């Protein structure tokens, strides 16, 4: 009985093997690369590249929920403080910035009044968003400046270059700004305003008047110009954007924002 059982098992094995060989013979052989049309190979390569791109896109996607982080697609947004003593021309500068970048007329000069509190201006281009915070420069209002330091990416400090009597006050106020720990590393644009006036000094003369040693510790630029006619503004703003884009401070602020959004 045992021998008969083993014989039956052997016949069964041979039958199955024969059936498998017959099935394999009916299958189409795998094509070699030379036999595959070029268009097919290109299609496969395109599909492979698309899959790789999809994998790269998934770096910004939550693996569990499929949520795509808004930071993958959003533009960089920078907050810029516009500071300076009373009547330096800060609000006039902000209105001219909006006029230059938004191609819209700002407030007429005769309607611009000294800022009490805060003016906000926003501009946007293909790459970045800029939010400007224009703060009042009267002595009693300067205490609110520091409330905006922590979230600012950069500072525009406006000085009336035609008012020599204000230089000492402007220097003192700027020194306090530069010494504040919450503005450490923030790029600084010093705008020597009102160059259209006969009494205006050059940016070199203004730099000598200010004599600021603290400027060596951060990216800075002196720019002579006029908030009245727009001279020098675009050069200064473009420089400031470049500095903010590569600033270590920007990395710190962005990381802080992303952490806060996750909480």
Automatic annotation (TrEMBL):
Annotated Pfam families: Arf
SUPFAM superfamilies attached to this UniProt entry: P-loop containing nucleoside triphosphate hydrolases
InterPro entries assigned to the protein according to its UniProt record, in alphabetical order: P-loop_NTPase, Small_GTP-bd, Small_GTPase_ARF, Small_GTPase_ARF/SAR
GO cellular component labels: Golgi apparatus
Amino acids binding GTP: 84-91, 137, 193-196
Protein's UniProt keywords contain GTP-binding: yes
GO BP annotations, alphabetical order: Golgi to plasma membrane protein transport; intracellular protein transport; protein localization to Golgi apparatus
Residues annotated for Mg(2+) binding in this entry: 91, 115
Keywords annotated in UniProt: ER-Golgi transport, GTP-binding, Lipoprotein, Magnesium, Metal-binding, Myristate, Nucleotide-binding, Transport
Molecular function per GO: GTP binding; GTPase activity; metal ion binding
NCBIfam families: small_GTP (TIGR00231)
Family, per entry: Belongs to the small GTPase superfamily. Arf family.
Protein name per its UniProtKB record: ADP-ribosylation factor-related protein 1
Species this chain originates from: Oryza meridionalis
């Amino acid at each position: 009985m045992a021998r008969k059982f083993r014989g039956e098992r052997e016949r069964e094995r041979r039958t199955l093997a024969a059936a498998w060989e017959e099935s394999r013979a009916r299958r189409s052989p795998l094509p070699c690369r030379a036999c595959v049309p070029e268009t097919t190979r290109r299609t496969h390569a395109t599909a492979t590249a698309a899959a790789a791109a999809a994998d790269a896109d998934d770096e910004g996607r939550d693996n569990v929920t499929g949520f795509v982080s808004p930071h993958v697609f959003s533009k960089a947004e920078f907050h810029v403080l516009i500071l300076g003593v009373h009547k330096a021309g800060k609000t006039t500068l902000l209105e001219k910035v909006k006029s230059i970048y938004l191609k819209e007329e700002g407030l007429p000069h005769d309607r611009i009044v000294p800022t009490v509190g805060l003016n906000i201006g926003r501009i946007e281009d293909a790459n970045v968003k800029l939010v400007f915070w224009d703060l009042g420069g009267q002595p009693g209002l300067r205490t609110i400046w520091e409330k905006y330091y922590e979230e600012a990416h950069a500072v525009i400090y406006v000085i009336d270059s035609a008012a020599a009597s204000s230089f000492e006050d402007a220097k003192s106020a700027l020194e306090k700004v530069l010494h504040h720990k919450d503005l450490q590393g923030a790029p600084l644009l010093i705008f020597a305003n009102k160059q259209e006036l006969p009494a205006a000094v050059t940016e070199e003369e203004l730099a000598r008047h200010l004599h600021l040693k603290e400027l060596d510790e951060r990216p800075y630029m002196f720019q002579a110009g006029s908030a009245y006619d727009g001279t020098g503004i675009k050069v200064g703003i473009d420089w400031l954007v470049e500095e903010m884009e590569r600033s270590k401070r920007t990395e710190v602020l962005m990381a802080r924002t992303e952490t806060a959004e996750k909480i």
